[in-house]
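$ run holo --ligand "coenzyme A" --emit tokens
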Amino acid sequence: MTCPSHRYPAELIDVVHLTGGERVVIRPVLPQDRELLIRFFHDLSPAARCRRFLHPVNEPSLKMLRQFTQVDHATHVALIAEIFVDGRETVISEARYVRTVEASSAEVSISVAERWQRKGLAKLMLAKLEYGAAAAGVRRIVGETFADNEKMISFARRAGFVISDCVRGVVRLEKTLRLQEHEHPRAASA
Ligand SMILES: CC(C)(COP(=O)(O)OP(=O)(O)OC[C@H]1O[C@@H](n2cnc3c(N)ncnc32)[C@H](O)[C@@H]1OP(=O)(O)O)[C@@H](O)C(=O)NCCC(=O)NCCS
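-- output --
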């Protein structure tokens, strides 16, 4: 079943510059981004895909791709970051939150293509997601990652998440959002 679509959150569209100066467009996902996402996940290493999905994934299934691209922009908000290589769109990051049954909470997940890591992209994607989430009434964001995923744990800690104890190799990440802390990221960096 497909959820009814809400307004496309155009306020989340942005052009950002990574620490190396590279220009990247961040925007909410569209149904027609399916092929771009297939390529993005295909190009991740098997280990990175496993860390992203918390289990080994060769290629995302059609069902998963549908869930990832046909979002309702309300209970499920998804962003992609893209660059243009010879005029061709290439996705280099995806991040999303999905509201949990407790509507004031949302579960976040994020991945960045290996060669684009450590340039501040995940930080920019998360800031934008948090801005949208806080404005939409989300008060707590949570996530899960493997206890040995040092990059994610370091990233999450730096981003203000509290890391809980490890249960069966997985740790829980949790962060409280406060609306006033989430002014528009573009205004914050201007
Ligand atoms: C975790 C991940 C999203 C970080 O993305 P990124 O774009 O490289 O992160 P950023 O460049 O925004 O880094 C922000 C901060 O996170 C921390 N961090 C990021 N990568 C790190 C690394 N390799 N080692 C240590 N700290 C790291 C640092 O504190 C960094 O700030 P700094 O560069 O000023 O020191 C990325 O490594 C990734 O996609 N991993 C595979 C998928 C995954 O594990 N997803 C998590 C499960 S949902």
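-- notes --
The helical segments are 34-43, 46-53, 62-69, 121-135, 150-158, 185-189.
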